[in-house]
Amino acid sequence: MKIDLTNPAWRQTLPPARTIAADAPVAACAFSRDGATVAFALGDGCVRTLPADIAATAPEASKPVHGGAVLTLVTDPAGDGFVSGGDDGRLLRLGPEGTAIELFNQKGRWIDHLAAHRATGAVAASVGKAAVVVTKDGEVREFGPHQSTVADLDFSKDGSRIGCAHYGGVTVWSLGQGTPPPRRFAWRGSHVALRWSTDGKFIATGTQENDIHVWRMAQATDMRMQGYPAKVKSLSWTADARFLYTSSQPVFTAWPFSGKGPEGKPPLQFGEEGAGLLSVVAAHPAAEFVAGGYDSGELQLGDIKTRRSVVLKMADGSAITCLAWSPDGFGLAVGNDRGDLLVVDLRR
C-alpha cells in the first residue's frame, strides 16, 4: 500500500475511518507503542481506548482514571500502554489490560504537558513552575522552579536533556548524574509551545506574540519568524529535521532547516486553503507527509514533495485539538473539542 496524493482516487473520496462520539472534549490522543491500540484523553476524567484496526470487532473501552479532566496523554515509552496527566495532579501509567499505576501525585497542581523518550523509557511532565522526570525504573526527579508556569517541554534527541518553555524563553536541564546548572535561552514574552528538532540541533517555540522563535543549540544563536495571524500552539519537525511545520495558517507552512536554515527565506507554503486556520500539525514519522487539523474541523493530509494536499475530513465547526500517527504511518488518530474520536485508515 502507498500513500499517493497524485492518485485521483485519493483526491476524490474520503478514506475509511472509524468515528465515535464521546461526552467530553478531547485533549490528546496517541497510539500504543505496538500500534494495536489508540487512546484519547477526555475532559470528563476518562481515557477511552479503541482498536487501531478500524475493522476490528473488539469494542472500545472507557475508563475513569482522573478526578478531573485528563489534560494530556502520550504513548508509554516503557510499555504498550499510555501515560496520562490530569488537573488532579496525578501522573498515571495506564497498562493495556486497564491497570492504572500512579507515578507522581502533586495535589492542587495541574499536569497539562507530557513528553516521552522511547529509547530511555523516561517521561517528563510539567507541574506548575517545575518539570518532573520519571525514569523507566520509577525514579522521580524535579527540575525548577522556573520563572513562570512551564508551558511545554520536550526531550533532546538522545534523551539526556529536557527543554522547558516558560515566560522569557527556554531552560534546558541535563538529566545526567549531579546537578549541573541549566542552560538558559532568553527571549521576551510567553513561550507556549516547544519542540526539539529530530536531529537535536534546534529548539523551536511558539509564542504569545504570534510568532515562532528558534535557537541553534551549538552556537546559542537565535532567529524569529513573524507574521502569523494567531498564537502558534502546535509545532512539528519532519523525521529528517529538514522542515519545521507550524500551525496558525490556512495552508501548510514549513520552515526549511537544511543548509543555512530559514534566515532571510520565506517559509514553504502549500496545499488547499482550509476552512479556517490550522490548529494542530503532525509530521509523518518517516515519510514526507504532514497531517493538519483546522479550527473549523477540517482535516488535511499534505505532501511536501509534490506540494499537494487532500481533505480527509470535511469541516464541521468543531476545532481539531489533537493528532497522532500510528507507528507504521498508515493510521491517524484525531480528536476535537466536541468529543469526536476518529481513527483514519490510510491503506487504500
Question: Can you walk through the features of this model?
Answer:
The protein has 348 residues and is an all-beta fold. It has a domain at 32-145: YVTN repeat-like/Quinoprotein amine dehydrogenase (Methylamine Dehydrogenase, Chain H, 7 Propeller). It has one helix at 8-12, and strands at residues 17-21, 26-31, 37-42, 46-51, 61-64, 70-75, 82-86, 90-94, 100-105, 111-117, 122-127, 130-134, 140-143, 152-155, 161-174, 183-196, 202-207, 212-216, 222-225, 235-237, 243-246, 252-256, 268-270, 278-283, 289-294, 299-303, 308-313, 320-325, 331-336, 340-345. The strands form seven sheets. The chain has a six-stranded antiparallel sheet with strand order 14-15-16-17-18-19, with no helix packed on it. The protein starts with 7 loop residues before the first helix and ends with a strand. The model has no long low-confidence stretch (mean pLDDT 93).
SSE topology:
Layout lengths: L7 H5 L4 E5 L4 E6 L5 E6 L3 E6 L9 E4 L5 E6 L6 E5 L3 E5 L5 E6 L5 E7 L4 E6 L2 E5 L5 E4 L8 E4 L5 E14 L8 E14 L5 E6 L4 E5 L5 E4 L9 E3 L5 E4 L5 E5 L11 E3 L7 E6 L5 E6 L4 E5 L4 E6 L6 E6 L5 E6 L3 E6 L3
Antiparallel strand pairs: 1-30, 2-3, 3-4, 4-5, 6-7, 7-8, 8-9, 10-11, 11-12, 12-13, 14-15, 15-16, 16-17, 17-18, 18-19, 20-21, 21-22, 22-23, 24-25, 25-26, 26-27, 28-29, 29-30
Distance between the termini: 7 Å
Rounded radius of gyration (Å)? 19 Å
Specify the oligomeric state: single chain
Q: Regarding CATH, which class of the domain at 32-145?
A: Mainly Beta
Residues in β-strands, percent: over 45%
> Averaged pLDDT, please?
93
The CATH topology of the domain at 32-145 corresponds to: Methylamine Dehydrogenase, Chain H
What structural class do helix, strand and pairing data support?
mainly beta
Query: What's the arrangement of strands in the largest beta sheet?
Result: 14-15-16-17-18-19
Shape: globular
Number of strands: 30
- H/I helix tally: 1
Low-confidence stretches: none
**Biggest beta sheet summary:** 6 strands, antiparallel
Helix residue percentage: under 10%
What is the CATH architecture term of the domain at 32-145?
7 Propeller
> Considering the protein shown, what is the CATH homologous superfamily of the domain at 32-145?
YVTN repeat-like/Quinoprotein amine dehydrogenase
